[in-house]
Design goal:
Layout: H1 2-20, E1 27-39, E2 50-63, E3 68-79, E4 83-98, E5 100-102, E6 107-109, E7 114-127, E8 135-147, E9 151-158, H2 173-180, E10 190-203, E11 206-217, E12 229-230, E13 241-253, E14 260-278, E15 286-306, E16 312-321, E17 349-350, E18 356-357, E19 361-370, E20 384-393, E21 414-428, E22 431-442, E23 454-465
Antiparallel strand pairs: 1-2, 1-23, 2-3, 3-4, 4-7, 5-6, 7-8, 8-9, 9-10, 10-11, 11-13, 12-15, 13-14, 14-15, 15-16, 16-19, 17-18, 19-20, 20-21, 21-22, 22-23
Length: 466
């Protein structure tokens, strides 16, 4: 049944692209990307040492009058699992109204300082400005109002009609169970929303961004464990999870230091999550209860650009996300008081090998990138080389993290370090090649006995656009 849905999804994207593609003003095309990885595998693991995936993307942008346009994108993916999945990642109508009358000599603006109004209706990617909390395809509405000194974004949508293979939402035990269930086609049923107020160049070229985001679990409350249920009466645990995020970010150049830039981000995470807590009234002494979420994330980074020296750039960053040392598992693991484990709606991972996500994690990283053939006129001019050093820590000093190889029962903040080397080369505008190698040196004192002390990955990517 999943394969049938996937084929219909891809066929729909193909019909849209090629039926409208004949319109002279329309822009349509696609890309084919192949990725092959060789990775270390612990003894006794069922993971594959060699992994290959192919990704086909077809896109279309077609004008519909003076201010409207249709944007569509269909994607199919083939993995060594084996797995075939396809979906329509984008399909929305965009309306753009310009309030600025551009002339050859000056810009005449309407009263109120409005410059542009943009709306999107349909399926699109909804994200907040930091990329640390939310980035997910939804079916909904998004509005952007741009002024002379500010920009406001408001958007909301439903994520439950997206193929689960293309959904980044995995926040609860129910999400994990559905991901493994072959009879479930769609991703988690959630309402997502975000709002942003951006104030560029507020003072001394400094930018201030304020935002909020939320996700609401829309599963039937009767289909999950009820609040206060005795643990002895539960065969399959798992409840609802609702989260909200208040986001503040400042960034810009550091005055008087030329090409040195910084950014500082803070996120407050609230909401509710199911946990197993002590309950004297329960026969077993414990029951499943909802706990308030009170968690934090802080990220600071600096970047220094040296354009005259092989287009080089150096950066350093630290990302802290709060944890909870009484959590027994990374997902819905709270056992006492407030849940202080930071829980992003769609977390990003750090490290090509370790892939640590936010939640009881602190990651320090330094990187250096350059184009060794910058300034040459040959095919090698676009070659970009980048080296990154990561150090990983548990914010709470103990407890679980997103990586299952870490033993939650151990104490110790330091988890290990990783070195990644990344090469990107685009010899032609339609052809891109990438090579990534990563080596993780884990702290064996906090890892499970089955985990390797040294892990590696070698990944080759190639992308052809047409």
């Amino acid at each position: 049944m999943n394969r049938l849905h996937a084929v219909w999804g891809l066929a729909f994207a193909l019909v849209i692209a090629f039926s409208v593609g004949a319109e002279p003003a329309a822009d349509w095309g696609g890309s084919l990307t192949t990725s092959s990885s060789v990775q270390s595998v612990p003894d006794g693991s069922d993971d594959d040492a060699f992994v290959n995936s192919e990704r086909l993307v077809l896109y279309l942008t077609a004008p519909l009058g003076s201010s409207w346009e249709l944007v569509a994108q269909g994607t199919a993916r083939f993995d060594t699992s084996p797995l075939f999945a396809a979906d329509v990642e984008k399909f929305y109508f965009q309306n753009t109204i310009d309030f600025a009358d551009q002339t050859a000599e000056r810009e005449v603006q309407q009263p109120g300082g409005l410059l542009q109004f943009v709306s999107r209706t349909g399926r699109f990617s909804l994200s907040e400005p930091t990329g640390l909390v939310l980035r997910q395809a939804v079916d909904g509405v998004d509005v952007t109002v741009s002024g002379q000194r500010s920009r406001i974004d408001l958007g909301a949508g439903y994520a439950g009609l997206v193929n689960k293979e293309f959904s980044a939402l995995s926040m609860s035990l129910q999400d994990s169970a559905d991901a493994e269930d072959g009879d479930v086609y769609f991703g988690p049923p959630r309402l997502l929303g975000r709002g942003t107020l951006a104030l560029p160049g507020l003072v001394a070229r400094q930018n201030l961004t304020l935002a909020f985001a939320f996700q609401q679990d829309l599963r039937d409350p009767d289909s999950v464990v009820q609040d206060g249920t005795d643990s002895a009466d539960v065969a399959t645990p798992g409840g609802l999870i609702d989260t909200q995020y208040a986001i503040a970010r400042v960034d810009g150049p550091i005055p008087g230091v030329g090409t040195l830039f910084y950014s500082l981000t803070y996120v407050f995470n609230s909401g509710r999550v199911m946990g197993l807590l002590d309950d004297p009234a329960a026969n077993s002494g414990s029951s499943y209860q909802y706990s308030p979420i009170r968690a934090h994330l802080v990220r600071g980074d600096v970047q220094y650009f040296l354009p005259e020296f092989f287009s080089a750039a150096a950066s350093a960053a630290v990302t802290y996300s709060s944890g909870d040392d009484d959590y027994q598992a990374f997902t819905e693991g709270n056992t006492d008081g407030n849940a202080t484990m930071f829980t992003a709606a769609t977390p990003s991972s750090q490290g090509a090998v370790f892939g640590l996500q936010s939640g009881n994690s602190t990651v320090a990283e330094v990187s250096w990138s350059m184009k060794p053939f910058s300034g040459s006129s040959g095919l090698t001019e676009s070659l970009l080389a980048r080296a990154v050093l990561y150090s990983f820590f548990r914010s709470a000093g103990s407890g679980p993290v997103s990586v299952s190889d870490v033993d939650a029962a151990t104490s110790g903040a330091y988890l290990g370090s990783e070195v990644d080397l990344d090469f990107r080369w685009r010899p032609f505008s339609d052809l891109g090649v990438g090579l990534t190698s990563g080596f993780l040196f884990a702290n064996s004192d906090v890892m499970l006995d089955s985990a390797n002390s040294v892990d590696y990955v070698l990944r080759l990517n190639a992308s052809l656009s047409f």
